[in-house]
Amino acid sequence: MATSSANANPARNEFFQQLAIRQQGETSSFKRLSDLTEELLDILNDQVNRDTTVLDEKLADYVFFPLSHIFRSHDQYPKRLIEVAIKCLTIVVHHGWKSNISPQILQQLLILLTFIIGGVPGREEARDLPEETELESLRALTALVAVAGTSAKAAAALTEEKLIPTLGHTVTVLLECVADGRTPAIQLEALRTLGCFYTGIKDQAALASFLPGIVSSLTKLLAKPRERRTGFSLAPYSQ
């Protein structure tokens, strides 16, 4: 009797069963939802440390489904919950979807993460984003742009005409993080994300449109007195 590849992989089945258990039950309270999301992160980290190949595209979709509900109402949830959900997202993007990420999901996540980091453009609002949540959002954005660079469809989705204003806002937010980030880690991660944009975006005209602003911002940063500067070094993304 023929056996499907999914059924023939005990590790994958075990991982799926663990995930299924975590998605059962009532999750209406913030405390319960936070606990479940923490458990999900532990499961994902444990699996990635043991065998990253188990987390494939289909399991990534399965994991992302409950996370998407959290992100849809991210401004209503505790920041710690959002931070943990973003950590899960980074694993899903980097180890699950990889080059198979949906262009539509890529665009949605680019908008989401940019808004979490920099707020909604044109809206004056008090920002109470914790430093660690901002850093994790930048790491997720780095992973997102890095995997986009490995897929022709995903890379093209970044520079679709309808997304150009969002992409421009993302670059602006990243430059603000580089110049005025609250910690060196935030500044460095924003630089890594910018570096991934330049290796991931294949549309040279789109890249050229952002170059003057990037050069200007980095020049201003380098012109600061030495004691006010952070020692930067671009490094490839790694999980």
Automatic annotation (TrEMBL):
<dbReference type="Pfam" id="PF24173">
    <property type="entry name" value="TPR_TTI1_N"/>
</dbReference>
<protein>
    <submittedName>
        <fullName>TEL2-interacting protein 1</fullName>
    </submittedName>
</protein>
<feature type="domain" description="TTI1 N-terminal TPR">
    <location>
        <begin position="38"/>
        <end position="224"/>
    </location>
</feature>
<dbReference type="InterPro" id="IPR016024">
    <property type="entry name" value="ARM-type_fold"/>
</dbReference>
<dbReference type="InterPro" id="IPR052587">
    <property type="entry name" value="TELO2-interacting_protein_1"/>
</dbReference>
<dbReference type="GO" id="GO:0005737">
    <property type="term" value="C:cytoplasm"/>
</dbReference>
<dbReference type="InterPro" id="IPR057566">
    <property type="entry name" value="TPR_TTI1_N"/>
</dbReference>
